[in-house]
Amino acid sequence: xxxxxxxxxxxxxxxxxxxxATAGSTDGARPAPGMVFIRGGEFTMGSxxxxxxxxxxxxxxxxxxxxxxATEVTNADFERFVAATGYRTLAERPPDxxxxxxxxxxxxxxxxxxxxxxxxxxxLTDPTRWWRYVPGASWRAPEGPGSSIAGRADHPVVHIxxxxxxxxxxxxxxxxxxxxxxxxxxRGGLDAxxxxxxxxxxxxxxxxxxxxxxxxxxxxSGADGYVATSPVRAFAPNGHGVFGVAGNVWEWVAxxxxxxxxxxxxxxxxxxxxxxxxxxxxxxxxxxxxxRVQKGGSFLCTDDYCARYRPGAxxxxxxxxxxxxxGFRLVRDP
Length: 334
What we know:
Distance between the termini: 48 Å
Strand order of the largest sheet: 14-13-11-15
Number of helices: 5
């Protein structure tokens, strides 16, 4: 039954056409508070690492100029949105029983998926060993009843489903980035590098992102200073001045997920201009479940499990899913 409930909410490159954007270099676009201007150009999208089969083949993409949030949307940002609109996230609403036949009604209560350290070594093939559906868990109570966002105003908002991100975007006058836009901005001018800061996981001994250190899922040493979310500016920005595009929380993007989409792009053109994703989703792991792409990895990513804090790697999530490692950031057209 736990599996059904977790499925219910979800557990979820330097070859630029022009030099990367710098502070004040906005091609005449009006500055957008809290955002970074990304001048359009061309880059190599995807990953050649064999563990990321759905991010292959690498391919050339050209994107137009856009603005992107310098950080993930924070708890303080989201709180202002809710105060202005009265919006309730999907995690705060009772699930529709018609969508979950066979799940007892007493389990169909507002809540979300929360990571819980199993306190012992477990098989990595069974995510239910470390994910729990927690009634009452939401952006206001990230770990469930009794928890709060007090002292975490500058942390990324979590337990955000895809529609929640869309609702915030409509209020803010922005939109979710395409997968190509997100990766182009995340790479920060470093084409085809393994990480958004280069090819070494640590730079001069320093951790560069909020990820999981130690044996997953029960041995997080917190060596980077965090065992859960961190402030959105806790680590150095990339070459474009964008923070937190590796680790911390997964970020929704607009594209539907298909593992064969990159092959379709390569067959279509040598360089694809502003790709916006396939028309529909297919995930061979769950053929009947439509999914959207997520990018950037989270504080739970480690080389032992996930490792998708690389910019070319891809995540995926059912649009109605949420968890305490899922957030978002937005873009705006000039």
